[in-house]
Amino acid sequence: MRRPILRGGRIALVLPTALLAITAMVSPSFADDVTPDDGGETPAVTETPVPSAEPDPAPVVDPAPAEVAEPKAPTASESKAAPTSGATSEKSAPTPGAAFTDGVRAKANVVTAAAQETCKANDGWIKLDGLSGLTLTITAPAGKVIVGVCAKSSTNVVTITLNPGQASYTIESGTGPWAGFVNGNGRAQELSHASYLLADEPEDIDEIPAPEIPVVDACGPDNAVYGAVPTGNYTIVRNLDGSITLKADAGYEFPGGADERVFPAPTDSNEPCDEPAEIDAPEVPVVDPCGTGNAVYGDVPAGDYEVDRNDDGSITLTAPAGSTFAGGAETYTYPVPVETNTEACEPTEIDVPEVPVDDLCDTGNASYGDVPLGEYVITPNEDGSITLEAHEGFIFPGDKTTHTFPVPVETNIEACPAEDPTRVVLCTYPADETAPIPTRTALGTIVIVALEDLVDLGFAGVFPYEFTDGGASSTAIRFADEGEVAEDIDAVVCGVEAEIEELPGDVDGEVDGEVGGLVEVLPNTGGPAGWLVPLGAGLVLAGAALVLARRRENV
Questions:
Q1: Cα 458 to chain centroid, rounded
Q2: pLDDT, tens digit, 9 for 90 and up, residues 215-265
Q3: In sequence order, what are the residues at sequence separation of 6 or more whose Cβ sits closer than 8 angstroms to the Cβ of residue 542?
Q4: How many CA atoms lie within 13 A of 393 on its CB side?
Q5: What is the DSSP-derived secondary structure letter of residue 255?
Q6: E-strand spans in 310-398?
Q7: Largest CB tally within 10 Å, which of 110, 321, 356, 382?
Q8: Three-state DSSP class for 99?
Q9: Is the separation of the CB atoms in 328 and 346 below 8 Å?
Q10: Reduced to 3 states, what is the DSSP secondary structure of residue 359?
């Protein structure tokens, strides 16, 4: 009797059949190499283990590179075999640091670029297109090193960094960081393009060891200090907190690449002092170069004491509290150093300076200009010559202690151009008097000056011309007449009561009352110049007429 197949049973039969059919159609898309190898049989997909750090032997090149088929949905077994990383390489990403250059391991950070389709060609990267073959050697130019390398093979792009940078680097497909550049059979694939990044070659730096610095810790609290620091290729800085900083000189570094080494402040033992600790006074060398009166003490070794250099050249050491020098003394004094080397020093030869000669027009006026300063005393002589006397320890060429420049020779004897006799009349006032001439109240002064002096102050021949010079403001009102002197000018022209002053330059050359090259200032009597005598005579005549008229009335 045929039993009817239940709906659930039908589904149970149909699903496996359908799954088998789909698997048969889809699975070929996951073949690693669709090109038959060894009689047309497709090789099985296997995961190649990460290569060791030692360089692999030269890979065997497949004569017919296989093409990668379009991916299809993997089967359950293939899913287990597939790599779990996000890299596009068919092999697992190599271990960071497995970079090689000329057989020497270099530090490298490997970056497998899953989303990057090509190597960079910007930001300093130099790209090499159109490559073929399994290896590529990149050599840095002089003064540069390679710090980054990128390569592409098939669809795989890998970028690494090199630290330290390398002068030369070889990319080997299928080995080291490039282990993913293989096909499904594990054979290396050719490179398609690459790029590299350069950096300046680092300077050669010598490593210097950090010195051992002794700690001086006398009894008592808070008195631990570092002793003398051995000299070396570094600068010594003693800090206020008691620590010491050593700064490496250029071209040197401390272990670990540090350019400075800090010694922290020493820890004090704080041991109590049962009895005053005795300090030994150190030996201080005396420095006494050639010559006399120059003996001095050299550097005082560091220790648990204060150092005072006295004005007379002696040195006094003061022990800290709880310590003494030999014999219980709290201080120790080095006497004034004794002179031991009194041998004369070899003098230093100095050059005779060049001194210019100033020779203006006309004759009898040639003279030396300024003498450059140097290791000598300058003495101008009455006849116009100059004598230089070298300082002690110096000589002029020829072992001479003096050098004399002879009387300067006259070279410019042409006559000087004649002076312009034209003069100008000025009204001068205090510098703070800025009111217009008619309203000024300050006492003014009438002055006559040479035209050339006024031109130097900006005068262009147009009157009136106002200007300020030194402590006075002035107004040029007109040209002076030939032979005219300041006393001849009516003070009214300046708008206020004025004094009269005549400066050198008048045609007569001399004026009565001249003092120190200037004419005495004559007070203005109040009336216009030239009116006083006629007015007085008129008043006398008028008085006489009145007297005569009175007599006639009385007759």
A1: 45
A2: 999 888 889 999 999 999 999 999 999 999 999 998 899 998 899 999 999
A3: none
A4: 8
A5: T
A6: 315-318, 323-325, 331-334, 348-349, 357-358, 367-368, 376-380, 386-390, 394-395
A7: 110
A8: strand
A9: no
A10: coil
